[in-house]
Amino acid sequence: MHVLLIEDDPLVALGIRSGLMTFDFVVDHVSTLKAARQALQTVSSDVVILDRGLPDGDGLQLLSEWREQGIDVCPY
């Protein structure tokens, strides 16, 4: 399973990524809304772990955009 991790805190991201990779998940990590938008266009993800407090905006803003565009990814 492929996970897109959107988290700006490096320590939190490291913990989540390490834990998921222990169970053979493939994890791509980005730390801004801008990078998340780009990643979703280039990488096929099964699940998104989405931080709300990102340096360039609220993660819910991105989720709303994805829903409006009909993007079907499961955010957690």
Automatic annotation (TrEMBL):
Keywords: Phosphoprotein
Domain Response regulatory span(s) in chain numbering: 2-76
Superkingdom of this protein's organism: Bacteria
InterPro entries for the chain: CheY-like_superfamily, Sig_transdc_resp-reg_receiver
Residues where 4-aspartylphosphate is found: 51
GO biological process: phosphorelay signal transduction system
Pfam family, one: Response_reg
Name of the protein this chain belongs to: Response regulatory domain-containing protein
Originating species: Vreelandella sulfidaeris
Source taxonomy: Bacteria, Pseudomonadati, Pseudomonadota, Gammaproteobacteria, Oceanospirillales
